[in-house]
Amino acid sequence: MQLRHIKLEDLKPATVNVRYGKVAPDVSDIQPSIKKRGILQPLLVRPNGKSFEIVAGRRRYFAAKNLQKEGGKVEPIPCAIMAKGDDAAAMEASLLENIARLPMDPMQQYEAFARLVKQGETIGSIAETFAITELAVKRTLALASLRPAIKALYQNDQIDAETLRILTLASKAQQKEWLALVRDEKAHAPTGFQLKRWLLGGENIKTGHALFELADYKGAIITDLFGDDDYFGNPDQFWTLQTKAIEQRVKSYKEGGWSKVIVFERGQYFAEWEYEKTAKDNGGCVHIVINHRGDVTFHEGYITLKEARARKAKPNGKGETDQNRSQKPEITKAMQTYLELHRHALVRAELLSHPKIALRLTVAHIIAGSSLWQIRPEPQRAPKPEIKASVLNSSSHKAFEKERTAILDLLSFDKDRADLVRCNGDSYPGAMLFVRLLTLSEPQVIRILTFAMVESFEAGSCLVEAIGNHFAIDATGKWQVDDVFLDLLKDKKAINAVLADIATKQIAEANTAATGKVQKGIISDFIKGENGRRKHKDWLPKYLQFPFNGHTDTPIETISIGASWLRVKAEFGGKSTRKSA
User: Fold this and answer.
1) In this model, does residue 15 exceed pLDDT 70?
2) Nearest to 142 by CA among 168, 116, 109
3) What is the residue range of 183's domain?
4) Assuming Cys at both sites, which of 53, 137, 191, 398 could form a disulfide with 14, CB separation 3.0 to 4.6 Å?
5) Total domains in the fold of the chain
6) Residue 335, domain member (yes or no)
7) How wide is the angle at C-alpha 505 spanned by C-alphas 502 and 510, nearest 5°?
8) What sign does the CA torsion over 256, 262, 263, 268 have?
9) Segment 388-427, tens digit of pLDDT
10) In this structure, how many other beta carbons lie within 10 angstroms of the beta carbon of residue 189?
11) Residues 42 and 93 in one domain
């Protein structure tokens, strides 16, 4: 390889450079050094006619050009000259330099590796050259299956890397259908985890969950190179085979001497604290739990607590002797009540001087319940699936779900548990949870209490208004106008008032006679900054402000936002500029 000093005007970036593009790179970090000392590390170039093209060193080249534009003197640049026409070697050199300097995004890696494959390089040789695994190369090359329009969305920062990778699971038809959703302003194109569920028919069922031989499955197997997992492309066929396999397991258990085998409904949770471990020979049962994700768990040797308590007076757990039946209990029922009340009084008095223990007991009651505590999680019911989807996609709800995951992990609960608060009217689960809470620190217990309270906090209550005003909550940046909001905005007077608020009074007056659809289209233009309208993405309706307000003088016919808030707003300094029901 020859070393020469070449004039700046005789150099230009090569198209094989993995970061080749029309936009000049950011060179602010190296500009001062080059201005002071010049270019010390040679550029890697190769002949191209009478000039040379840069294989590696593009940023140093642009830094030198900037220096020249500023009037600085640029000496001929040191260059290492490669053999002409060796595209594969040139690309490898460019990749090696760029990977060492800064990780490229997935699309840049794909385009570079794809060109190497086109030049005759194998997956193995690419992996060896860049000291990465063959799986990593395969993952990158999997992007070849994507439609150009999807690649363009990523390159224009309209989708993230996770969504890009998940789309490699999609067939060409699914990619086309997804792109149609992206282009439809009234539709919602799923991304991230929701996209994977959409692609796999709503069920991400891994092949590793199958109880049957994979050879019996005749549907498509979808490989996720980025997640190291394979998924069943036909959930219905999977469940047919899985159900048959479970039935065979039930038969095997019964033939093996188990007295009872109980198969739970799909998705039903097995609360271990509601059962007691019991040997097979003593009447223990098998409980088969089926998760919606396809995995099946076999809990061998359990009976319910109710059954276990009923056996306490039975020496062998199977039946009473005549001698047992003739024996009288040591204490009468009345004495039992007497002792229970006195023991309760002793414990209650002691708890008064231990607020930290009482706090943990409170948390256990809120989450597990008892015959006296009947707390339920807020059901989040919505009359339309579009409303539900809008809430689920909000940043506030995502923050809530993120905290749920952390709380479940803190309590060592099943990560797929739908609700933390789950009242069952039995004190045993509460006692087991209380024991767990005793091992946690004060801040951890308060964190759990906070989430339990928030999860069981009733929507549509005047307490929502009271707390919102107490904190003076500002929804800016936490909520954006979506198609669901505009669709639910029906009153024409309110639509025109919203238009005046988000645009101008003059525009609203000019469109008073226009249909609600036309006016909402103008509102949408202002939100998105389309059709020459000034973008107003952070606009908030008065409906989401604290204290509550409306856009017209028409009463709001709700108990929580209307009448109830009028009765408590004075306590929170709430002021309303409108009439309310």
Assistant:
1) no
2) 168
3) 146-199
4) 53
5) 5
6) no
7) 110
8) negative
9) 888 888 899 999 999 999 999 999 888 777 789 987 667 7
10) 18
11) yes
